[in-house]
Amino acid sequence: MIQRKKLYVYSGFIWCVLFGLMSFYWALGGMVGVKSLGGSIYQHALKREASFIVIVWLTGFMKLGGGLFLLLLLKDWSIKVHRILYYIALIGGVFLFLYGLANFVSLSLAFTGLLSMQIEGYALKWRLFFWEPFWMLGGVLFILSSIKFNKEKNTSADYRQN
Question: What are phi and psi of 20, to 5 degrees?
Fold first, then answer.
């Protein structure tokens, strides 16, 4: 049976790869799903502005980099490197989760009419029920990966001391 640490790391890796592949697809000109993002992102995608396409490529590579970073949590490291990896993964996960949560809250307020936003209903629903929870899922996977990574190191250190 796969260890929980590995399960979270591999799940987070798959999340990053899927997210990165979406960006590459859109950067190459694919339009399926772009309308679900809404707002200015959709407008830039329709115009195929060169600077915007560069940003989409860069975000795709950053997402893949996040997945590769998570794979580092599968290896044993020195205490110093371990701490650095743990905090990067934890802080990154918190950032991803809070980013999705903040958007989720503001979109929920827009959905209920308490906040006025420049986003059409189609994109609002997609962002509220798919995209923002998807960001939060990634955050949770990074957080759980970092916690299990740290717990495993502390458990093995306690075992070696006894």
Answer: -65, -40
- Write the single-letter amino acid at 20: G
Domain parsing of the chain, residue ranges? 4-161
Tokens describing residue 23: 């960006």
Q: How far apart are the first and last CA of the chain?
A: 27
Dist. CA 162–CA 160, nearest whole Å: 6
Q: What's 78's DSSP letter?
A: -
Reference 33, options 156, 126, 153; nearest CA is: 126
Distance, CA of 54 to CA of 64 (rounded, Å): 16
CA-to-CA separations, 9 to 17, 62, 71, 94, in angstroms, rounded: 12, 17, 7, 16
Q: Where are the alpha helices (DSSP H) in the chain?
A: 4-27, 39-47, 50-71, 79-111, 121-126, 132-161
- Which pTM was predicted? 0.90
The pLDDT tens digits for 99-135 are 999 999 999 999 999 999 989 999 999 999 999 999 9
Nearest to 85 by CA among 95, 98, 71, 104: 71
